[in-house]
Here is the input.
Amino acid sequence: MSSLLLLNGSPRGTRSNSMKMLTRVGEGWVHGGGDEPEVLHLALEQDRTRAVEAFGAADTVVLGMPLYADSMPGLVMGFIETLAPYVGREGNPRFGFLVQSGFPEALHSRPLERYLAKLATRLGCEYAGTIVRPGGEALQVMPDRANKKLWESLREVGKSLHVGGEFDSLVLSRIAGKERLSPTMVRVMSLASKAPVTEFYWNGLLKKNGAWGKRFDAPYASA
Amino acid sequence: MKITIFNGEPDASSEFDAYVHEVAAQMATSGHNVETIDLRDLDIKGCSGCWGCWAKTPGECVKRDDTEQTCRAVVHSDLVVLAAPMVMGFTSALLKRMADQMIPLVHPYGLIEGGEMHHRPRYEHYSLMGLLLGAGPDTDTEDIAITQKMWSRTARNLKTRLAFTSVADRPAKEVAHELATVA
Ligand SMILES: Cc1cc2nc3c(=O)[nH]c(=O)nc-3n(C[C@H](O)[C@H](O)[C@H](O)COP(=O)(O)O)c2cc1C
Here is the structure.
């Protein structure tokens, strides 16, 4: 009862925020006494083919992904389509998920979470829960050592997945943080977003790429 | 009225595909300017999360594929109809791969809207959106509710709204008429 398959659904593949987080979930699983997990990246073609087969053989599967335009990336939906033959099969794995997003509030990911819970039910899998983490893009910018608390929480849910068969819901709510912005934050950010100078991260990238002067381009404006 | 249908049916010989084209024909008969884009015939490379469309070639995907057509349609139509069969409780991956590549239509810059974080618009006009679903044998009302919820949030993130949702289980003429009156 201890084989874990980690499926990384980020189109960025190995160098993604999803993978950073899944790695810690896997570490917690091992701390809890589970075997070293198998890791597959859906962005890699050979892994994608292998993933369908590996899904059927695993005891537990965790599928991680970024939120893309308010649902799963097309890449992940393509993989989900290939799971159709598993619907209702005996001996399907326990299935858990990880969704992380760019915006700072957890609420953006809730409809997808609802979809994923239903997906587990549809397949006839036991549902292990969904890790929701907003503000995930910060992981690209911050050094890993600045995220010790998050890594620790992810290890905790990884461990609880092995020990109790599901993610610990208290730790899940700690990981999810703010459901929505507080009225004070709304006021502060409404003011800040009126001044493009404050858009530090994007302006930095635009300048580095020599594209700063084209930032307001609207290439499809004319018919 | 300019109406563009994004047809996310991968199978050209399905009943749903015929239905989508029938809806288009009905709307054209009533005098609308209707274009159907069969997504299966487009070169859609898929988003790889590189941020090139926001930080390298602002407003355009660096891969230069056919999603230029679908992006253009969003800012030049009155109504865009997202049509797709339901597979495993959601619209087809074909439709979603195209939708991921609509983010060049907005800015990376943030904006607070209805107390939530969203994007600043890059264009003045974004077409209304409609959802036309081909139910599968396993589709239930919960699947449709979840699918509608996700697409209505996508529409909102793209500075517009989902103004119509229907399952393809009634006469195409009826649906065509309703679609043409939402915009
Ligand atoms: C095409 C695209 C669409 C996105 N849509 C959303 C969105 O709707 N809401 C959100 O909060 N973040 C959105 N993001 C941000 C990603 O979820 C975020 O950057 C994430 O941390 C990327 O994870 P990864 O490195 O594992 O791919 C989007 C990113 C891309 C590239």
